[in-house]
Design goal:
Blueprint: H1 4-19, E1 40-43, E2 61-63, E3 66-68, E4 72-74, H2 89-100, E5 105-112, H3 132-145, E6 148-154, E7 180-181, E8 198-199, H4 202-221, E9 226-231, H5 236-241, H6 256-259, H7 261-273, E10 280-285, H8 300-313, E11 317-321, H9 339-348, E12 353-357, H10 363-371, E13 377-380, H11 382-386, H12 390-397, E14 400-402
Parallel strand pairs: 4-5, 4-13, 5-6, 6-9, 7-8, 9-10, 10-11, 11-12, 12-13
Antiparallel strand pairs: 1-14, 2-3
Helix pairs in contact: 2-3, 4-7, 8-9
Length: 414
């Protein structure tokens, strides 16, 4: 039986191991792809009608210094697979698989700019420099495949510190006394499964803005091609925008200009701390989805107005989703259900690139959205989970011969 001293030494070693993050070697071996997987190579069957027309889904897309081989984007999806905010080998395999299979752009999940900004204790974070190395490892791998990589910068606000969908997290890992929002108190608890938030002070708002900027700096150090500010799905920025969750009476509440102030300050701070030659994305919910209720809420008209403002403030690409800010929402979930919102923004805010999302499950469907000029890019979430090779499947649907990863060429059928 181990002695007391031996047990103490063992416990100390275990604690040290938990607090010591893996230092990946600077020199890594990659077989770099001469042509990015997902690149258009020609028609599969040249005898078919209009075979020589390149589907828009497989035409390159460029914004600033970012050029994508195709217009299929992996939407950010929470994986609840992090410890203390660090990206892990799970994220390397998960995100890297999409790059191997030809996604033009891979966006990592909502990543907390502050520890209390995570949705759950199992979410990724980018609030300290030590978190850069694991993120850079993923960026280097994705770039070696020929794909591009970005991440969502996020703060969950009143929807923070909740139980992840899977896995056991000790109670000590939660921050139940530090869940915040634009407004606080029982009236602003999202639902019974969430924590009652406290109201952010003006000083704390300004500190949070700075945290977004510092996170953008770390993302740049990790070599990311873009960052996406998360202003959707009822998280902190959305909470400030919507009259449902923002009842402030100071400069951050009341009028649309005031409710949008926090978002615009975040955009300017991120723009100032991310390389000017690289684009910035913003994801928003176009509506609170409570049109059936007789109360002030967030809607598409206000979304169009802030789209104009954020374009001037430095946003290059506008990613349009919906809902998430109240359990009273009614969402008619169906193919393309959010695409009309993206279409409105694209038509009414010239010069702002737009991403459509919302039950996009096939290559033909994605290409139709682009060909009809309803959006410039399409983002797919669950579709990529079902089929990590979504791009090569889409290519077959559209009579496209597409580049495969060299290691996967044997399965291309070419």
């Amino acid at each position: 039986m181990p002695s007391t001293q031996e047990l103490a030494t063992q416990a100390s070693s275990q604690l040290q191991a938990k607090n010591t993050r893996i230092q990946y070697p600077e020199e890594r071996h990659f077989i770099t792809q001469p042509t990015a997987p997902g690149t258009y190579l020609g028609p599969l069957d040249a005898s078919l009608l209009n075979a020589d027309k390149v589907p828009l889904l497989f035409k390159p897309f460029t914004v600033k210094d970012l050029t994508l081989a195709n217009r299929a984007v992996v939407a950010p999806m929470c994986m609840f697979s992090s410890v203390d905010g660090f990206f892990t080998d799970y994220h390397l395999v998960h995100l890297g698989s999409f790059a191997i299979s030809g996604a033009g752009l891979v966006l990592a999940e909502a990543t907390g700019v502050l520890p209390e900004g995570r949705i759950s204790p199992s979410d990724t974070g980018i609030w300290k420099d030590e978190q850069i190395v694991g993120l850079k490892r993923i960026a280097d791998f994705i770039h070696a495949q020929g794909s591009k990589f970005g991440m969502q910068l996020a703060h969950a606000g009143r929807k923070a510190s909740v139980k992840p969908f899977y896995g056991d997290v000790p109670e000590s890992e939660y921050w139940k006394d530090n869940v915040v929002g634009p407004s606080g108190g029982n009236d602003f608890q999202w639902d019974a499964n969430h924590i009652v938030p406290r109201e952010l002070s003006v000083e704390e708002i300004q500190e949070t803005v700075k945290a977004f900027g510092a996170a953008a700096t770390r993302a740049a150090k990790a070599g990311l091609d873009t960052v996406e500010i998360h202003g959707a799905h009822g998280y902190l920025i959305h909470q400030f925008l919507s009259p449902i969750s923002n009842h402030r009476t100071d400069q951050y509440g009341g009028s649309l200009e005031n409710r949008a102030r926090f978002l615009l300050e975040v955009v300017r701070e991120v723009r100032a701390n991310f390389p000017a030659e690289k684009p910035i994305f913003l994801r928003v919910s176009a509506t609170d989805c409570v049109e059936h209720l007789d109360e002030s809420s967030w809607d598409i008209e206000q979304t169009i107005q802030i789209a104009k403002w954020v374009k001037e403030a430095g946003v290059d690409v506008f990613h349009v989703s919906s809902g998430g800010n109240t359990p009273k929402q009614v969402v008619e979930y169906a193919p393309n259900y959010q695409v009309p919102f993206a279409e409105r923004v694209k038509k009414e805010v010239p010069g702002l690139y737009v991403v459509a999302v919302g039950v996009i499950t096939s290559g033909k469907q994605a290409n139709e959205i682009l060909e009809e000029e309803r959006a410039d890019l399409v983002a797919i979430g669950r579709g990529f989970l079902r089929y990590p090779n979504f791009v090569t499947n889409a290519a077959k649907e559209l009579n496209v011969r597409v580049k495969y990863s060299q290691q996967y060429e044997a399965g291309s059928g070419i």
